[in-house]
Each structure stands twice: as structure tokens, then as C-alpha cells.
């Protein structure tokens, strides 16, 4: 008998994955150990140690460690090797740069150190290593233990007793580190082949179903746990109700409101909103289907929506729900409100930009306006206001007032006002002829320099709004020219400087042309 390895992760566990109700928990280590068998008396059979690791799956489906280990077992059977131990880790929450110790991996090292195995078998090199140092550690171990090879189930192998083998292994780890997120096509084919087995691959149960634990056996007779979906009668009834309502023209939002009112919760216990209702009702599981690599394939569970055509109609209906607009191209977003009190959304309809009040957002859903005339009218009104010295002074005063009673700010403001008054006085003197032009220029540049410093200091102390206001040109034409050069962020900031909101008014009957005065009600900041 080979000595049993001692290591943190080398604790004996039941053979099947201890998965709880919904598969292995994140961060769990599944360390499993068969009884170490001695090397065959005739010495012809290699002793294999299996290792695998669950990691992030780009398909968003939980990988099944059992499938991977079963693959390795089958490979060993085919080679005529004896599996002496199996170890695995769940690394779903760890990155390849993670320093988190892997219990299963530590146990593997302990087994190798104890001389338990001649070969390590894994499904892919990247399962075994995240870092080159880990490989180097194994290479060192190979110098003083029976370990001679690392073999992947695709047949690629690395001899650790020759320099070529070590070189190849290092290269493979480098590749694995570069492509650690990639799942090999081989595994995907394997999963596709198993997709029709009725195994539930996702983590959590889908709405309408319960997970039922089942026990399976691999080709080599080992037991493992998997899950089947069974219809949950109460939730299935809700699904059928939802389908009927959507096909009758109701929105996902209305259903979400109603279900929330009735205390109906999602599969994970959370309240259902419009997005979740849409996601729930369009889920392929309800039609007995699953997506695999972008294609719908038959799952082996009962459909709640048995009519495939009905399900397609449902999906089409829910996908007609207006999508979220690309928010970047609508300058009035957040500023424009429907008269019903709802913030209006930007929406591109057949290439025409519009703002609309959406029922989805809780609004009346009846107001819709072309974007360009409203945007132009609001822009003109704001630039006109900003070119008005009275408005501007009031706005500056408002912003100053908000700064509070900061003494240093008050002092800076006083100095700035003094210098401004001096400049005015200087110009008067020049006009009166009581000062020589050279002296004027000299004095003016001194005062201007000081004033700029004070203004910069003030800007640094004041709100972004005050800074923005101070930077704006003062004349209407200059403001217009500047507007043309500003990006969307700056334009929005300038509009918000002057306005709290703009409310779109109901259109009067018989209206022919856009009348900004009648249709837009601005709420100015001052
Ligand atoms: Zn409205």
C-alpha cells in the first residue's frame, strides 16, 4: 500500500458531488479520494491521479466537474491505467492571477510527494495550472518521486523526465495562461452530445420548474448526482397566464406590476420587474428547449408552453417592447418631462429621433415629440438667457449663495469685484484723457493678471456649475458658435446650468406647426 497523503484538501468525501440543491457552491473545494491502490504487482499498470477544476464558463453555464472527471476516468480505462486518486477544485470565483490556495491542488501535490502516482491526468492543461510556478514545482517533484508524466485526455502528454517534455509542458502552460477563459471545442462537442440527456446544466432552477436530484452512473460504474427539471404546478399556471396576457397585448411591465401586487416572486425569491418578466417568459426552458452555442436544442424536460409556435409568437411580442435608447444622442435626456410628470426617453423611430413618454416608465405613454424642433427651441432659449446679463448675474448669485459662507470665497469675490471696478475706472480715465495710453496698458495688464488669478482661485473653490458659467462666452453669437463645438456632455451641462426641467405640454387641437411657447414649459433655475 502506498501511504495515504496528508494534506489540507485530502479529506475523504462521499463519492458523489455534495451539491446541495443547486449544484456545488461557489468556492467549494470538491476533494475526493479513492483508496490508494498499490502499483500493480507486475508493474505494467501506471497509477493515475486525476485532477480537474471548475472555472468560469463563457456560455454562462456551470461546468460539471463530474463530466470532466468521468472523461479522465474513461481515458485511464482506455489506457489500462489504475486511477488511484481524484482531486478537484472549484475556481469559479478566482482569476488566473488569484493566489487563493487550491485545496484539491494541494492534496494532489501531497499525493505526488507521497509517491502515489506515476501520471497526472486532466482534461486540459489549463485545468491544472494557473501559473508557471506551479508547473515548475511539479517538475521539481518529478525529480524525486515516481511521477513521470502529465497527460491530457485529448492524448497530448508531457514527459517530465525529458527536457523536450518539460519544454512542451511549459509551452502548454503559457498557452493556457493566455487562453485560460477559452473552453476547447472538444468539451463543447461533449456537452452538446450530453445536452439531450435531460441534465440540467444551469445553476439555479428556472421559473416554472423545480430541480429534482437524480443519481447517475458513469460508464465505469461510478455514481454521481445530476438534476432533472420537473414542472412546478403553481408557477407553470402563472407562465400560462403570462403567455395569454402578452398575446392579448399586455406589456411585460403591466404583468410585472400585477404579479408584484399579488406577491409573486421570481425563481430566486426576488420581485419581478419588467425585464425579469420578459426574461422569464421568453426563456427557452418553458418550451422544453435550451440554447447551446447560440442554437436551440431540445432539452429533456417537459415543456410548459407546449406549442412551439405560440412560444415564438410570445417572444416576438415581448421583443417588440421598446428597447432602451442609446442615451448618448439625446441632449434633453433627464431634462425633458411629459406633462404627466414622467421623464421622457429618447427614441429613434425609423431613423427619426423622438422623445417619448413611456408607459414602461410609469408614464401616460401618450406623448411623443420630434426631437429636433424641441432641442433647437430649448437650446435657443437657454443661450438667449445666458446672453442676458441680468439672468446671468442672478444665476451667478444663486450659485454663489449655494457656496455658503466660506470666508475665503467671500474674500476672493470681494477682491475680484474690486479689480473689476478698477478696470472700469481705468477705462473711464483713458476716455477722459486723465491717463496716458502706455500707463493704461501697463495698469490694465497688471490688474487683469491679478484678476485672472483670483478668478482661477474662485473657480477652484466653487461648484462645477459656477466654473462652467464663468467660462461661458457672454454674447449670444459667441455662445452659439461655442455650442456648435461642444460635445454632448458639455451641451447637457450648459442646459442644466440654466434649467431645472422642461415640461412638454399637451398639443392643442388643430395645431399645425410646432409652437415652442405653447408646447414647452421651462422651469428656470433662477
Ligand atoms: Zn406622459
Topology, number of strands? 16
Bound molecules: zinc ion
How far the N terminus sits from the C terminus, by CA atoms, comes to 89 Å
Multimeric status of the protein: single chain
Shape: flat
What about the largest sheet? 6 strands, mixed
Q: What topology, given as strand order, has the largest sheet?
A: 1-3-2-4-5-6
> Which structural class is indicated by helix and strand composition?
alpha/beta
Task: Give the number of domains.
Answer: 3
User: Share of helix among residues?
Assistant: 40-55%
Q: Give me the Rg, rounded.
A: 36 Å
Low-confidence stretches: 1-42, 57-62, 93-97, 180-186, 192-198, 321-327
Number of helices: 18
Taken as a percent bin, the fraction of beta residues is 15-25%
In round numbers, the mean pLDDT is 76
What would you note in describing this structure?
This protein is α/β, with parallel strands linked by helices and 526 residues long. The protein folds into three domains: 7-180, Resolvase, N-terminal catalytic domain (Rossmann fold, 3-Layer(aba) Sandwich); 235-319, Putative Large Serine Recombinase, Chain B, Domain 2 (Hect, E3 ligase catalytic domain fold); 336-524, no CATH class. It is 44% helix and 16% strand. It has 18 helices and 16 strands. α4 (132-144) runs antiparallel to α5, α8 (252-261) crosses α9 (274-282) and α13 packs antiparallel against α14. The longest helix has 26 residues, at 407-432. The N and C termini lie far apart (89 Å). The model is unreliable at 1-42, 57-62, 93-97, 180-186, 192-198 and 321-327 (pLDDT under 50). Bound molecules: zinc ion. Zinc ion binds next to loops.
Amino acid at each position: 500500500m502506498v501511504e495515504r497523503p496528508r494534506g489540507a484538501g485530502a479529506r475523504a468525501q462521499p463519492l458523489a458531488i455534495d451539491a446541495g440543491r443547486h449544484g456545488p457552491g461557489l468556492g467549494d473545494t470538491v476533494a475526493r479520494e479513492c483508496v490508494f491502490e498499490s502499483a500493480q504487482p507486475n508493474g505494467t499498470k501506471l497509477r493515475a491521479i486525476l485532477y480537474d477544476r471548475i472555472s468560469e464558463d463563457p456560455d454562462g453555464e456551470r461546468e460539471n466537474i463530474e463530466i470532466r472527471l468521468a472523461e479522465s476516468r474513461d481515458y485511464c480505462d482506455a489506457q489500462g491505467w489504475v486511477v488511484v486518486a481524484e482531486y478537484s477544485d472549484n475556481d469559479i470565483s478566482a482569476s488566473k492571477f488569484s493566489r487563493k490556495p487550491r485545496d484539491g491542488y494541494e492534496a494532489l501535490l501531497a499525493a505526488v510527494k507521497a509517491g502515489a502516482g506515476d501520471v497526472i491526468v486532466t482534461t486540459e492543461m489549463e485545468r491544472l495550472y494557473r501559473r508557471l510556478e506551479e508547473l515548475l514545482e511539479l517538475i521539481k517533484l518529478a525529480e524525486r518521486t515516481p511521477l513521470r508524466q502529465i497527460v491530457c485526455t485529448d492524448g497530448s502528454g508531457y514527459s517530465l523526465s525529458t527536457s523536450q517534455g518539460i519544454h512542451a509542458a511549459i509551452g502548454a502552460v503559457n498557452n493556457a495562461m493566455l487562453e485560460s477563459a477559452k473552453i476547447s471545442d472538444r468539451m463543447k462537442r461533449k456537452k452538446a452530445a450530453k445536452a439531450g440527456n435531460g441534465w440540467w446544466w444551469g445553476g439555479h432552477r428556472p421559473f416554472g420548474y423545480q430541480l429534482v436530484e437524480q443519481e447517475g452512473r458513469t460508464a465505469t460504474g461510478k455514481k454521481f448526482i445530476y438534476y432533472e427539471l420537473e414542472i412546478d404546478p403553481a408557477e407553470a399556471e402563472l407562465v400560462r397566464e403570462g403567455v395569454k396576457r402578452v398575446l392579448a397585448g399586455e406589456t411585460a411591465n403591466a404583468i410585472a406590476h400585477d404579479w408584484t401586487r399579488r406577491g409573486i416572486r421570481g425563481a430566486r425569491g426576488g420581485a419581478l420587474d419588467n425585464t425579469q418578466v420578459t426574461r422569464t417568459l421568453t426563456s427557452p426552458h418553458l418550451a422544453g428547449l435550451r440554447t447551446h452555442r447560440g442554437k436551440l436544442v431540445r432539452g429533456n424536460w417537459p415543456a410548459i408552453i407546449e406549442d412551439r409556435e405560440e412560444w415564438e409568437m410570445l417572444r416576438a411580442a415581448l421583443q417588440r417592447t421598446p428597447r432602451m435608447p442609446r442615451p448618448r444622442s439625446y441632449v434633453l435626456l433627464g431634462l425633458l418631462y411629459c406633462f404627466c410628470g414622467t421623464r421622457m426617453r429618447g427614441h429613434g423611430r425609423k431613423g427619426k429621433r423622438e422623445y417619448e413618454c413611456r408607459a414602461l416608465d410609469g408614464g401616460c405613454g401618450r406623448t411623443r415629440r420630434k426631437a429636433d424642433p424641441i432641442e433647437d427651441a430649448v437650446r435657443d432659449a437657454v443661450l438667449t438667457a445666458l446672453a442676458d446679463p441680468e439672468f446671468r448675474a442672478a444665476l451667478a448669485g444663486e450659485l454663489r449663495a449655494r457656496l455658503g459662507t466660506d470666508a475665503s470665497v467671500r474674500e476672493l469675490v470681494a477682491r475680484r469685484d474690486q479689480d473689476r471696478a478698477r478696470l472700469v475706472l481705468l477705462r473711464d480715465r483713458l476716455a477722459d484723457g486723465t491717463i496716458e495710453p502706455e500707463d493704461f496698458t501697463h495698469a490694465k495688464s497688471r490688474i487683469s493678471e491679478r484678476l485672472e488669478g483670483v478668478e482661477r482661485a474662485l473657480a477652484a473653490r466653487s461648484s462645477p456649475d459656477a466654473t462652467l458659467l464663468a467660462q461661458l462666452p457672454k454674447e449670444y453669437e459667441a455662445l452659439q458658435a461655442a455650442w456648435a463645438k461642444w460635445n454632448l456632455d458639455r451641451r447637457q451641462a450648459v442646459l442644466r446650468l440654466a434649467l431645472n426641467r422642461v415640461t412638454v405640454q399637451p398639443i392643442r387641437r388643430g395645431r399645425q406647426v410646432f409652437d415652442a411657447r405653447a408646447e414647452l414649459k421651462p422651469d428656470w433655475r433662477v
